[in-house]
């Protein structure tokens, strides 16, 4: 498990967290872990690169009326063979 050292914590903030820990019958460390877990749960998940690409692809298809474009490979081959 990773250890984190926090220096220069505002004394007022530390006292409030100590009071919360005592109120919840937790250690200071457990109270801080609980607070961090609650805050982290509120952070929306970031879409994966693949999901982001699929979303952009879908948007592009919708902008072009779901029009399908031909594969340009054959056109390139014809052009090279001239």
From TrEMBL:
For this protein, the record's InterPro entries field holds:
Arc_rbn_hlx_hlx, Ribbon_hlx_hlx
**What's the protein called, per UniProt?**
Arc-like DNA binding domain-containing protein
């Amino acid at each position: 498990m990773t250890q984190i050292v926090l220096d220069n914590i505002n004394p007022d903030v530390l006292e409030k967290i100590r009071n919360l820990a005592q109120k919840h019958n937790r250690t200071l460390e457990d109270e801080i872990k609980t607070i961090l877990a609650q805050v982290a749960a509120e952070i929306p998940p970031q879409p994966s690169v693949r999901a982001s690409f699929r979303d952009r692809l879908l948007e592009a298809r919708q902008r072009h009326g779901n029009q399908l474009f031909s594969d340009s490979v054959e056109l390139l081959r014809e052009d090279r063979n001239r």
